[in-house]
Amino acid sequence: MSVLKKRELPMGIIFIIALLCILDYFIIGITGLSNIVKMIGNWAIVISAIAMGLGMLNLLLVNARNIMQRKGNYFYSIWTVIVMLLTFFLAAYGGMDYPPYKWIFDNIYQPTGQAFFGLSFLYTCAAAYIAFRVRTLETSMLLIAGIIGMIGRTPIILTLWEGFTPISDWITNVPGGGTFTAFKISIGLGTILIGIRTIIGIERSYIGEEIA
Amino acid sequence: MISTDIGIWVSVILIICVLTFIIKDTPLFRFSEATLVGVTAGVLAAQGLQNVNRLAWIPLITKADYISIIPILLGILMFTRVSKQIAYISRMPVAIMLGAGVGVAVTRTMATEIIQQAGGLFKAMPSSTLDIINQIIFLICTIGVLLFFTYTRAHVGGLGFITRIGRYALMLGLGSIYAGHIYARAAWLLPILQRIVWDWLGITL
Amino acid sequence: MTAERKSLAEKILTINPKIIMIILLILLIIPLAKPLALPLAISKNTKHFYEIIDGFKPGAKVLFNYIPTTATMGDLCPPSVPVIYHLYTKHVKIYFVGVGVADGILTLIDTQVFSTIPPEKFGYKYGEDWCNLGFLAGGDITWATFAKDIRAAVKFDRYGNPIDSLPMMKEINSIKDFDYVIHCGESITILVRQWGDPYKIPLLVISTTAAVPMDVIPFYRTGQIYEYLGGLGAGAEYEKLVNRPGKAIASVDAITLTHIFLIGIIILGNIVYSSTRLRGGKIR
Predict the structure, then answer these.
(1) Which chain C residues touch B112 with a CB distance below 8 Å?
(2) Which residues does residue A42 pair with via DSSP β-bridges, in sequence order?
(3) What is the pLDDT of residues C49-90, one digit of tens each?
(4) pLDDT-derived band at C39, boundaries 50, 70, 90
(5) Cβ distance C246 to C238 under 8 Å?
């Protein structure tokens, strides 16, 4: 069992599996290699699916601790655990199309989730009013691009002057396009860098160690 | 005509509980928050269960696909994370997922996000003067923004000039992103208001 | 001692954000109750998207990746309805699937799409003209596995039928066997990285409005995405093109009003701010 505790084991697994995936990409025609990579892919999908239950387990433990220790507003923790277990066991018992589960999904999960996300619109607009001020050249440019972007999505204002559409498109496609392309290239470089660091074992945060 | 459907009433009550946050952090808001957290965890776990059933359990039972037992066991090992003493066991399934993910991501990222995007900077010269000017501005803005995020040299002299252009392009781009976000978030809020107006109050178009 | 009275300029600049939020809520609700029928122009991207689908031949195989979330359904579900309606009218074979991190294919497609435009109403038979391959959670590896060999990723469809029992799956082994992919959701970078570029399959994307500048435009510029619809606004335009007004057209008026208000108060705030600064006044 002490072998499992060694950090080299997960690092070795990552290295071998990543190497197989990379070889499969570059070398075409080796059916055995292709089948192994497909099988690993299938395993990863199943493991991801099971990992979705880990969140529930973690939440259960955290809330159970709050309830046992009578910490703060532990009534909310009791309610959280009740609805969580009710939702899960209804789906486990009757499947995703089970009417009581669908009722919870359509009338509790969806509207409440949408309301939480929708609140961000109100706060974003209030923040826009406070933050979009002509203080420096940069903030002025941010303001102008933001206003013209909003005008570009408001057809009734576009009918007032036909020049708004080409200006809005120009900002989005030319300087904006340059920005977004630069972002994509930078993100791509970062992804490859982190990937290679993970493969060769420099990046070890997934095993709870600091970066080497 | 106000709806008599209990489901609509429950959803509207919860929506109003969430919207009370505009006034202040109320117990009603906390209640709706606790509800959402619990239901979300339950829904995600239920979907995970359904997926495991479909992808591994049913093939194992109906088609005697015994290989399917391996990912099921590996997935169960993930749950050892909750105990400090045996959490190290969960590193194995995490390593499999991470190795596979990193392997396919690294190979494809080079082609998609770097080569293709960099290649797009040097497209065939357009015919009209305005398009040529736009292409040049696009190229300068891209290089300016890329150089803006390099910190190995001080941004002075020629580098300072081009990174300043990059900063201005960044502001224009971020303004454009912000405008898109405002529109999108308004669209996120609309379904709950539609539920209140159309489904609950019965005001139809 | 009396408190110093705030000037009008200060009142405007330091207005309580809650007042702005309540006004925005009212402006969103009014058009839902009483439609304003504000003018709607068709953008060139929406028109081109429409023309592409209009050019689909009967029997073409279209993979429809449907992954809106609870958050993004307001921006993604309304445009997906007229697009799917248009696909029905072209008598193409539609393969619905949900590859990604969102579960829209499990529940939202039933409540948002099939409840308003059930496939059976257009003469579509399950297993022959349309199918639902279900939901696959995960990142790059899920997308890559599905694209390479569908049967390695999916063995049973959404309703528990073995996928080999569906007649329309006979000729489908990998993503190369589809004629088009329509993606409705986020994760656009992974879509292009794992499906579009390696297999050179035409990608049509229905994305959120927020994702258009950052995620869609760089790929659209280089031709990695063939065409896109940018959220609710584009959905309203598409409803106009297919002549089937729905939720998108009904919702766009509400967003237009809030945008007009927001543009107005930001400009007003800046006029007051700049004039106060020019006069050397203090802003608390």
Answers:
(1) 189, 192-193, 196-197, 224
(2) none
(3) 999 999 999 999 999 999 998 889 999 999 999 999 999 999
(4) confident
(5) no
Answer yes or no: do C140 and B101 touch at CB < 8 A. Answer: yes
Contact (CB<8Å) B205/C250: yes
DSSP A158: H
Q: C179: which 2 tokens?
A: 């004629």
For residue C207, the number of C-alpha atoms closer than 13 Å in the C-beta half-sphere is 26
- Answer whether A167 touches B (CB < 8 Å): no
Name every residue whose Cβ is closer than 8 Å to that of residue C260 and which is 6 or more positions away in sequence.
A154, A156, A157
Q: Is C126 left (phi over 0), alpha (psi -120 to 50) or beta?
A: beta
**Residue B21 vs residue A208, higher pLDDT:** B21
Half-sphere exposure at residue A43, Cβ-oriented, CA atoms within 13 angstroms: 26
Q: Which residues pair with C206 in a beta bridge?
A: C184, C229
Whether the ipTM is more than 0.85: the answer is yes
Helices B157-194 and C231-241 cross at an angle (nearest 10°) of 60
Residue type at C43 in one-letter notation: S
- pLDDT tens-digit series, residues C2-18: 455 678 878 888 888 89
Picking from A41, A52, A125, the nearest residue to C144 by CB comes out as: A41
| Burial of residue C161 (number of CB atoms within 10 Å: 0-12, 13-18, 19+) | middle
Among the partner-chain residues C73, C106, C137, the one whose CB lies closest to the CB of A48 is C137
Q: What pTM does this model have?
A: 0.90
Taking an 8 Å cut-off on Cβ atoms, the answer to whether B189 and C29 are in contact is no
Please count the other Cβ atoms lying within 10 Å of the Cβ belonging to residue A50: 24
pLDDT-above-90 percentage for chain C? 65
Q: How many CB pairs under 8 A join A and C?
A: 144
Q: Which residue has the tokens 């499992």?
A: A4
Q: Which residues of A touch C157 (CB under 8 A)?
A: none
CA distance B114 to B192: 40
Strand arrangement of the beta sheet that strand C130-136 belongs to? C130-136, C93-99, C61-67, C180-185, C203-207, C227-230
Cα–Cα distance measured from residue C100 to residue C187, given in angstroms and rounded to the nearest whole number = 7
Chain A residues in contact with B46 (beta carbon < 8 A): 87-88, 90-92, 96, 101
Q: Which residues in chain A (88-127) have CB-CB distances under 8 A to chain B?
A: 88, 90-92, 95-96, 101, 103-122, 124-125
Residue C3: strand, helix, or coil: coil
Distance of CA A99 to the CA centre of its chain: 29
Task: Tell me which residue of C40, C43, C39, C41 sits closest to C228, measured CA to CA.
Answer: C43
Q: Tally Cβ neighbours within 10 Å of residue A180.
A: 28
Averaged pLDDT for residues A22-33: 86
Locate C174 and state its tokens: 């990998």
Residue numbers in C near A150 (CB within 8 A): 259, 262-263
Residues in chain B with CB shorter than 8 Å from the CB of A74 are none
If pLDDT is split at 50, 70 and 90, which confidence band does B155 have? confident
Q: How far apart are CA C205 and CA A89, in angstroms?
A: 36
Q: How far is CA B47 from the centre of its chain?
A: 18
- Chains within contact range of chain C (3+ C-beta pairs < 8 Å): A, B
Phi, psi of B106 (to 5 degrees): -60, -40
